[in-house]
Amino acid sequence: MRAIAGVQVEENTTFADLTTLHIGGRPRLTLRCDTADAIVEVVRILDSAKVPLLIVGGGSNLVIADGEIDVVAVILANDEIEIKNNMLRAGAGAVWDEVVQASIQAGLGGLECLSGIPGSAGATPVQNVGAYGAEIADVLTRVRLLDRASGEVRWESADMLELSYRYSNLKFTNRAVVLEVEYQLREDGLSAPLRFGELARRLGAESAETRFPAAVVREEVLNLRRGKGMVYDPADHDTWSAGSFFTNPIVDTALATRVHQLSGEEHMPRFPAGAGPTGESKEKLSAAWLIERAGFPRGYRRGQAGLSTRHTLALTNRGGARAQELQALAREIRDGVEKCFGVRLVPEPVWVGMSIDE
Ligand SMILES: Cc1cc2nc3c(=O)[nH]c(=O)nc-3n(C[C@H](O)[C@H](O)[C@H](O)COP(=O)(O)OP(=O)(O)OC[C@H]3O[C@@H](n4cnc5c(N)ncnc54)[C@H](O)[C@@H]3O)c2cc1C
Question: FAD-binding PCMH-type domain: from which residue to which, for each copy (predicted)?
Fold first, then answer.
């Protein structure tokens, strides 16, 4: 590819270097793009030449096969952060936790519960990232994106993204590249009401409406996340993961009740999750709880792949794991849970060059 301003070419980078799982082979080429214009130009050229490409932010939600991977890795590194009044705009390549930190330093509330999530700002709408009772849909106003079918660049409102639990119409579709994101935050610098019991209790919230200074909530969230190995740290194998590996399953209430009976336990975490297309009531179950009850304790190993010793839902690389070891562990857990409870867990990350089954 000819020289393009703001693009650096890397020939020897592997996906093991680019992902928090530290697993994955070599892309055809790696192109690091420092500006939105550079991203647009690179993606348009590759798309028009029908060269397969993979957009990479922080690599924290990617499971990639070993060996030669037939894609060009396009790394987004446009990392500007701009704050005007209560509006924050960030380049897609900005490190997400630095965006959260900047918002709090500017006296704004709204992002605190999402502190410590690894990865980039541009990826936050992709799976509607969420944690501790908050999700990006609460604050996202719009995204500037490159439509890959038409080559057009435009702002699209958050309503167009069909944001729901760990999903948007950007995930798994490759329909667009997010170039910039815009969030509307709280000018009083206070957190949103705390919807996550453990966090509210630790902060001593008096009611479901209690708000705290965003900086205070951020610190508590980071403490909680570190305790669970959910803040990425290159020195800590419990964090060499893609975060929660399976989504929490949403099932019919009848199935939730059967699972509860099968578990033989008095208490099972189950939460109302609206109604299905024919009005049947739905409930969200805890994937971590199901995995433990199906006989996979924290620290469970399969070769160099294993469950985190601090969080059952994180599949981790204990050092030098092969993609196939991780895949075999994921499959064993999914199938074990299904055999015990009749609930099929679905992986949350994006797989490239392989899937949980192939
Ligand atoms: C320790 C740990 C804890 C985590 N905790 C959480 C959590 O609490 N909540 C949560 O929701 N997630 C969590 N995750 C998962 C992950 O951090 C998020 O999904 C994050 O948003 C991924 O961002 P990324 O930049 O690393 O995306 P990548 O892994 O680089 O990419 C993921 C997917 O998004 C696509 N993509 C990335 N950027 C763009 C873009 N700008 N435009 C279009 N497509 C794009 C990629 O092509 C790929 O398909 C955790 C992960 C780890 C490792």
Answer: 23-188
For atom 20 of ligand 1, which residue has the closest CA? 119
In the reported structure, the alpha carbon of residue 123 is separated from the centroid of ligand 1 by a whole-number distance in angstroms of 5
- Which atom of ligand 1 is least distant from the CA of 166? 11
Concerning whether 348 is annotated as a catalytic residue, the answer is yes
For the chain, which domains are there?
7-76 (3.30.43.10), 81-227 (3.30.465.10), 237-352 (3.90.78.10)
Residues with CB under 6 A from ligand 1: 20, 54-62, 76, 92, 117-120, 122-124, 126-127, 129-131, 170, 177-178, 230, 232, 239, 241-243, 350
Paired residues of 62 in beta bridges? 350
d(CA 281, CA 138): 24
Query: With left for phi above 0 and alpha for psi between -120 and 50, is residue 94 left, alpha or beta?
Result: beta
**CA-nearest residue, atom 28 of ligand 1:** 59
Quickly list DSSP for 180-195.
EEEEE-BTT-BPPPP-
Specify whether 338 is catalytic.
no
Span from the CA of 204 to the centroid of ligand 1 (angstroms): 31
Q: Which residue has the tokens 């994106």?
A: 145
In a 10 Å sphere around its CB, with 0-12 CB exposed, 13-18 middle and 19+ buried, how is residue 256 labelled? buried
Distance 134 CA to ligand 1 centre (A): 16
Expressed in angstroms and rounded, the spacing between residue 248 Cα and the centre of ligand 1 is: 17
Those residues with Cβ within 8 angstroms of residue 112's Cβ, 6 or more apart along the chain or in another chain: 100, 104, 134, 191, 192, 214, 215, 217, 218, 221
pLDDT tens for the 358 residues of the chain, in order? 568 999 999 999 999 999 999 999 999 999 999 999 999 999 999 999 999 999 999 999 999 999 999 999 999 999 999 999 999 999 999 999 999 999 999 999 999 999 999 999 999 999 999 999 999 999 999 999 999 999 999 999 999 999 999 999 999 999 999 999 999 999 999 999 998 889 999 999 988 889 999 999 999 999 999 999 999 999 999 999 999 999 999 999 999 999 999 999 999 999 999 988 888 999 999 999 999 999 999 999 999 999 999 999 999 999 999 999 999 999 999 999 999 999 999 999 999 999 999 8
